[in-house]
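USER: My hope is that you can spare some time for a protein that puzzles me. I am handing you a single protein, as its sequence and its fold in token form. Walk me, if you will, through where the backbone shape changes along the chain. The protein I mean follows directly.
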Amino acid sequence: MTCDHITLPGGGSAIVCSSRRRQRCKCGRPATLACDWKVTTRKSGTCDAPLCAGCSTSPAAGKDLCPTHAVAFEAWKAARP
């Protein structure tokens, strides 16, 4: 559970807790996608970096890559005969 401290207009404050963390892309926009690059060291098996549609690269239908892994994907493609 995540909790945020909110300052109210009258000068008071409140603590708002939620069981769901709001994911944001590195650019600050709401994340609606996650990076699908395979990462064997992660339990999920993929990078899972939160992404917005503007920062995502889609190498195939239903697959999304973060900017870092989009560069790695291009390098991987260039190294193949």
Residues 67-79 form the longest helix (13 residues).
